[in-house]
């Protein structure tokens, strides 16, 4: 799912919010069946509606100046330089959908795999922070559009296939994403992001014991994965494995210095 997306509690909370907007999918029950319950959402018609949240006057002035130069620029390389600069500014202020929009404009000017990947990754970043169904669906479609182009040229890019899989989970056919994640794990049983995402999906469907198994596997292979360590504790907590939960949250507490993470861990420990 890209770089560790939830290094602090704030990002963890955002990811949990996105997770519970997804369709509920039973992915690992004992009978081997898959139960799906989902609500279709319509994509957003206007791209501009995705990036109209307020920003400071100085930031707006800088971006407006760059956009003016961008719209007047006829040279492709200079156009892309302006687009990248605008996208970088939007990324710095947390407007990931706006950043993706300008990376897409650059990809439209210079149509190659490097630009497709940059636009697709940017839309996936925005997808990870979308907190309503319309944005989620729209950004998922944009992500797939660009990353699938890269995968057509290089099917071995399991990192990108994992991202595409997670966008399908938010679609009207979530099992397509689950199937892709399973395919990734068949090809690479130790794939960090595929294991992590299968754990998240088990949590989302209420299969906390199964989620704990996934996260146990993850932190055994990748003990530095902060998200996995945190979610392992949550999975233990939710599956009533209180002794394991307490021990796991103590591990997180001893390895993190972030005050928000520590506050969250303390709140769990107080409930045990």
UniProtKB/TrEMBL annotation:
Record-linked SUPFAM superfamilies:
TPR-like
- Say which domain of life the source belongs to: Bacteria
Q: Which UniProt keywords apply?
A: Repeat, TPR repeat
Q: Which residue ranges contain the repeat TPR? A: 192-225
* Listed name of the protein: Tetratricopeptide repeat-containing protein
């Amino acid at each position: 799912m890209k770089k560790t997306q939830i290094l602090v509690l704030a990002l963890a909370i955002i990811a949990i919010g996105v997770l519970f907007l997804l369709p509920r999918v039973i992915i690992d029950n004992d009978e081997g069946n898959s139960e799906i319950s989902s609500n279709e959402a319509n994509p957003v018609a206007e791209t501009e509606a995705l990036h109209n949240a307020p920003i400071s006057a100085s930031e707006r002035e800088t971006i407006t100046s760059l956009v003016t130069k961008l719209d007047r620029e006829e040279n492709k390389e200079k156009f892309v330089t302006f687009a990248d600069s605008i996208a970088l500014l939007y990324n710095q202020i947390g407007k990931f959908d706006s950043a993706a929009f300008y990376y897409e404009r650059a990809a439209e000017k210079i149509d190659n795999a490097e630009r497709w990947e940059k636009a697709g990754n940017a839309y996936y970043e925005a997808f990870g922070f979308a907190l309503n169904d319309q944005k989620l669906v729209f950004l998922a479609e944009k992500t797939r559009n660009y990353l699938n182009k890269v995968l057509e040229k290089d099917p071995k890019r399991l990192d990108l296939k994992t991202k595409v899989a997670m966008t399908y989970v938010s679609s009207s056919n979530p099992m397509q994403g689950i199937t892709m994640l399973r395919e990734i794990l068949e090809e690479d049983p130790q794939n960090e992001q595929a294991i992590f995402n299968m754990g998240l999906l088990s949590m989302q469907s209420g299969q906390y014991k199964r989620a704990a198994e996934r996260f146990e596997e993850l932190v055994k292979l990748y003990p530095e994965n902060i998200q996995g360590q945190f979610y392992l504790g949550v999975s233990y907590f939710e599956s009533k494995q209180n002794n394991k939960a307490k021990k796991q949250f103590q591990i997180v507490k001893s390895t993190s210095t972030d005050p928000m993470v520590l506050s969250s861990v303390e709140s769990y420990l107080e409930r045990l």
